[in-house]
Amino acid sequence: MAGFPIFVLTHSHLRCSSDTWVIEKGFSCFNLTGSPESEATCNFGPVFNRKSSKTFKPYPKHVFNIEYADLEYLYGTVAFETVSAGGLAVCLHCACCANHD
Predict the structure, then answer these.
(1) What is the pTM of this model?
(2) Looking at the domain assignment, is residue 94 inside a domain?
């Protein structure tokens, strides 16, 4: 995103979100009982630092919130960002930054 390579899983399914989301630097990680865990335990890998992006624009009054069948859930910031994949760049793509897992 915006010149910072990070690993993302893409998915699109009738019962799932097709939102683009990344893990934001400084995220909080919790286990299924709600107890805090280390970032390493969540094992997301490289994270997105919005402060390093020149194209990140928050979408005010909108919140990202998703829950999966395995009870994993994420919420955070909704924003517009330049996203590139395979040489194709999409400017002002609506992307989500999860900062609570």
Answers:
(1) 0.69
(2) yes
